[in-house]
Amino acid sequence: MTFPRLRHTLLAAALLGISGLSSAAQASGNAICYNCPPEWADWGSQLRLIQQETGINVPQDNKNSGQSLAQLVAERNNPVADVVYYGVSFGIQAMEEDVIEPYQPSHWDEIPDGLKDPEGHWFTIHSGTMGLMVNVDALDGAPVPTSWSDLLKPEYRGMVGYLDPASAFVGYVGAVAINLALGGDMDDFTPAIDYFNELADNQPIVPQQTSYARVLSGEIPILLDYDFNAYRARHSDGANVEFVIPEEGSVVVPYVMSLVKNGPNPDNGRAVLDFVLSDQGQAVWANAYLRPVRESAISEEAREVFLPDSDYARAKTVDYDAMAEAQRGFSERYQTEVR
To answer: For residue 170, is pLDDT > 90?
Structure first.
């Protein structure tokens, strides 16, 4: 999930052949969701469950966050979608573009304040947490690291990987987590820059693209990544992988939804938003190893997959708008200052 600023590229992206769904949107019993891809976060199961439990048909849609926002802007005078799913920074931009409207769905009060717009323009349905994805079998006898500072130790030389934070958003999320944990803020990334320079002495592996398979193979024993990838490796792929939220702290990255302003099927759209926050809807996310936003909806079985709540207490929400605004400046500093 990437959070670039789109203000000068929205219409251009919308004109790249993104197909409309106007005929489906007008059909009775339908709700159109932009960016509900069946292979991501198990949206396929969610959409089937929505139809089964509510009678509302929600067609699959494979736009990404940026394409969804671009199309909402292009269609602002004749909206096609009813709801939209995207990374939190895109929810903030959609609110600024005035293409979504407030709605406070069922279980609104269970969504933590930092994970929703106060008026309901966007709200989190599930999240990922940054931490350490560790292939225990590839550590050559070294203990599983428990902190950001551990990664600087000589026993982890050549074992630590992180995606290039100047070009990959997950890499930037790792940089934000490290920076905040070491006393920095969105206006000062010096702690993170200093940390990456120290880590450079330990010969880290810095790929440009997702490295899930390289962790499973043992090529990258320790990767800065999201919790849901570590859980998938352990529980779906059978790898001896552990997930660690560093002792100094980390950050939560929300995935959010919104009601489209003047959408063609507003009642159905609201019903869909209510359902994804229901116990049944939230269970789908837990089964896909994403952490549901409603703590009360996590089953005992799902809790056995996730780290204890005491560990997750170390992962904090941030000012996501400020995080998006700071990304370019950090990238420039990383490229010029890190060895």
So the answer is: no
